[in-house]
TrEMBL record:
Coiled-coil segments on the chain, per record: 553-622
Disordered: annotated segments: 530-551
SMART domains per UniProt: AAA
Protein name per its UniProtKB record: Probable ATP-binding protein YheS
InterPro entries tied to this protein: AAA+_ATPase, ABC_tran_C, ABC_tran_Xtn, ABC_transporter-like_ATP-bd, ABC_transporter-like_CS, ABCF, P-loop_NTPase, Val-tRNA_synth_C_sf
Native organism: Microbulbifer agarilyticus
A single MF term (Gene Ontology): DNA binding
Organism placement in taxonomy: Bacteria, Pseudomonadati, Pseudomonadota, Gammaproteobacteria, Cellvibrionales
Pfam families assigned: ABC_tran, ABC_tran_CTD, ABC_tran_Xtn
Family indicated by similarity: Belongs to the ABC transporter superfamily. ABCF family. YheS subfamily.
PROSITE patterns to which the protein is assigned, alphabetical: ABC_TRANSPORTER_1, ABC_TRANSPORTER_2
Keywords from the UniProt entry: ATP-binding, Coiled coil, Nucleotide-binding, Repeat
Length: 637
């Protein structure tokens, strides 16, 4: 297991961890969450032995292979396919050995042995597996042959993700893997990670993604690591219960809950019985339920709208959308009325961003008309909005350029809602993190009081607390909203209807996000059928062989079930024992206990503490024995 014991770490004069301890068992999938800058990426560096702790120990099982997703990739002439395939270092090393042996040609026995080793690691299917990964992440067959240097930064990050997934690993470390993915690639990645058999640690600010993938959450809280069982939703509930026990937080919770319940009631009064409206009501009820988990969020802001509106705000008639020499959407009819809230769905490259750019007036029409209302006021957040910020200007200067007459105090109060407190408002944004730059861009949108928000992936780089604040602000925004996002929680809670952009059309989608997931799977199957790949899997093996493999795997799981169930039972007991040890240690650490006259209580607590620790040690030994037995049974099979 991964064991962090008494870890303390200071970076740049700041305490990131102080006597933090945590255990992660093999095969578990754990989400790592916390505010930007709290130390999540630094934790990964410690696991990779790239960063030493100031105190304590960080133990990873000897012999484990670790794969991680790099955050940068240099320009290279290698093809995207070769770059992804490089992630399988065992395969590449074996290929080089085999190439050298065949070039020499003098040792036939050695060549035969190398071919056997290649077959043993399923090396011959390597290119097909790499192509499958790239296809799932949105790279077309033609893209896979392009050199790495020809891709933009966001697509290079996708290549790094493919390379990490290609790596044989006992432990997989992923840092914000969905940041540069669209919704269909995010859904594909979810399914891939659900099947990953090793241990997974994933830093992510996408709550629905975490809900689908992880079975535990490690939260950075006051320089400590707190482990919660269950997915992100379970974490929110558990944390809300903890906060509710503190009186001052409880009062804030009630105010937040009352605010959300009032909003739900107002929306319910207007809602129809349409499927989308009912789905949104359920989502809003859930927002009210989870609000207590965020009562201590540093972000509180609203998105005011212009009081003057036109109807329609924007009208596209017979619109031909695309670029010179390439039409993407040939005949689009779309009217955006005040208060409409639309989520754009569709596969990668279908034209969602092009449609938003056209509505914003950023992309000229090839044909047709775009008519704007007299009082139209657009707030446009593009995928590359952060690059438009002046790196030498501060947040307050960015807003002052829009309203030179605004007072400094007014601007300070406004920017405070976006997390810019004190002298931070005067610092150049060039030194800010991606999340901080995104908050500046959102603040500029809000300051202009638009009546139509056009948002293309606005949550990239935002942490969970800022995403929560944005969700609440958008839910209450009185203007019209058109949104493209891979964050399903944001889509579900801020839009009333969906438009599907696919096959050269933009048409209403009658369904919710679960229906869209099924549509997308069917769309992908049809694509494969049309390309003639429906009779074989991506690794070149017949579908029937795959079915036999799945049946064999299911039989093995059934055979090992008693051991796996026993292991889970021991882990649950260990978690309870750890909590008991922690409870007793907290009691023994209470200074009032030693004020006099409580010696019997001290003796009882000390004895109970020793017994609890002994019980935990016995459980750990039993866990190791069962783990070894399970591993032996798997090897024998």
């Amino acid at each position: 297991m991964i064991n962090l014991q008494g870890v303390s770490l200071q970076v740049g004069g700041r305490d990131l961890l102080n006597d933090a301890s945590c255990r992660i068992f093999p095969g578990h999938k754990v989400g790592i969450i916390g505010a930007n800058g709290c130390g999540k990426s630094t934790l990964f560096k410690m696991l990779l032995k790239q960063q030493e702790s100031d105190a304590g120990s960080v133990e990873v099982p000897t012999g484990w292979e670790i794969a991680h997703m790099a955050q940068e990739v240099s320009a290279s002439d290698r093809s995207a396919l070769d770059y992804a395939l490089d992630g399988d270092h065992r395969l590449r090393a074996l290929q080089q050995e085999l190439e050298a042996a065949e070039a020499d040609g003098s040792d036939g026995k050695r060549i035969g042995e190398l071919h056997e080793r290649m077959a043993a690691i399923d090396g011959y299917s390597g290119p097909a597996r790499a192509a499958q990964l790239l296809d799932g992440l949105g790279f077309s067959h033609a893209d896979q042959q392009r050199p790495v240097k020809s891709f933009s930064g966001g697509w290079r990050i996708r290549l790094n993700l493919a390379r990490a997934l290609m790596s044989p690993a006992d432990l997989l470390l992923l840092d914000e893997p969905t940041n540069h993915l669209d919704l269909d690639a995010t859904l594909w990645l979810e399914q891939w990670l659900q099947r990953f058999p090793g241990t997974l640690l994933i830093i992510s600010h996408d709550r629905d993604f975490l809900d689908a993938v992880v079975d535990g959450i490690i939260s950075f809280e006051q320089q400590d690591l707190v482990l919660y069982s269950g997915n992100y939703t379970a974490f929110e509930r558990a944390r809300a219960e903890r906060l509710a026990q503190q009186q001052i937080q409880y009062e804030k919770q009630q105010a937040q809950r009352a605010h959300m319940e009032d909003f739900v009631r107002r929306f319910r009064a207007k809602a129809t019985k349409a499927k989308q409206a009912q789905s949104r009501l359920k989502a809003l009820d859930r927002m009210a339920e989870i609000a207590p988990a965020h009562v201590d969020s540093p972000f509180r802001f609203r998105l005011p709208a212009s009081e003057k509106v036109s109807n329609p705000l924007v009208d596209l008639r017979e619109a031909e959308i695309g670029y010179p020499g390439k039409t993407i959407l040939p005949r689009v009819e779309m009217g955006i009325q005040p208060g409409r809230r639309i989520g754009l769905l569709g596969p990668n490259g279908a034209g969602k961003s092009s449609l938003i750019k056209t509505l914003a007036g950023e992309l000229p029409l090839i044909g047709g008309e775009r008519q704007c209302g007299e009082h139209l006021k657009i707030g446009y957040f593009a995928q590359h909005q952060l690059e438009a910020l002046d790196p030498k200007a501060s947040p307050i200067l960015h807003v002052q350029r829009l309203s030179p007459g605004a007072s400094e105090q007014e601007l300070r109060d406004f920017l405070g809602g976006y997390g810019f407190i004190g002298d931070r408002v005067f610092e150049p944004v060039g030194g800010f993190s991606g999340g901080e730059k995104a908050r500046v861009a959102l603040a500029l949108l809000a300051w202009q009081k638009p009546n139509l928000l056009l948002l293309d992936e606005p949550t990239n780089h935002l942490d969970l607390e800022m995403r929560h604040a944005l969700t609440l602000a958008l839910a209450e925004f009185p203007g019209a909203v058109i949104l493209v996002s891979h964050d399903r929680h944001l889509l579900a809670n801020t839009t009333d209807e969906f438009i599907l952009v696919a096959d050269g059309r933009a048409e209403p989608f009658d369904g919710d996000l679960d229906d869209y997931k099924q549509w997308l799977l069917a769309f992908k199957r049809e694509e494969k059928r049309q390309s003639g790949n429906d009779t074989a899997s991506a690794d070149g093996k017949p579908v029937e062989d795959k079915k036999a493999q799945r049946r064999a795997a299911a039989a093995l799981r059934e055979q090992l079930k008693p051991l796996t169930n026993k292991l889970k039972s021991i882990e649950q007991k260990m978690a309870k024992a750890e909590k008991e040890v922690q409870r007793l240690e907290e009691k023994l650490a209470d200074e009032d206990l030693y004020s006099g006259g409580r010696q019997d209580e001290i003796t009882q607590l000390t004895k109970a503490q020793g017994e609890a620790r002994e019980s935990l040690d016995e459980l750990e030994m039993e866990w190791l024995e069962v783990s070894e037995a399970l591993e032996a049974a798997r090897s024998a099979s």
